Amino acid sequence: xxxxxxxxxxxxxxxxxxxxxxxxxxxxxxxxxxxxxxxxxxxxxxxxxxxxxxxxxxxxxxxxxxxxxxxxxxxxxxxxxxxxxxxxxxxxxxxxxxxxxxxxxxxxxxxxxxxxxxxxxxxxxxxxxxxxxxxxxxxxxxxxxxxxxxxxxxxxxxxxxxxxxxxxxxxxxxxxxxx
Length: 179
Known about the structure:
By secondary structure, the chain is mainly alpha-helical. It is built from seven helices and no strands. The relative contact order is 0.16.
């Protein structure tokens, strides 16, 4: 969630980046919002129900990886070529679509019982505070180097991938101890 105010495809920097940096027509940029929503809907309707809960970690990791690739890829789109922008947006949306339901399920599983509301509240509070700070800093970063917004967001996703691997390794250790 921290990536949203910084530089994801649904941040406030998206349209200015597309028009100012990539030279895509303002009217054409609005199509990208439809691509984002359409791909997300297709993933939620047809892909997510097929993916087993048994593969939750793989879905989270794949989703994070696809988002990071799309964020790096959008910075390499040739000027004025909307086709590649559409591909990057679709890839990001696909990655986010397979990531978010399983990430939400993971948080729910970790926070079983009476502590669930407190954990969700803590996660949302920390996210809100850090989002405000990141949002403030990202304005300066965008003014200095617009592409770095997307690189920094990809870096955050990379750190999330590392954290997920650590969580998987810890879970395997716990299962081994219980067996």
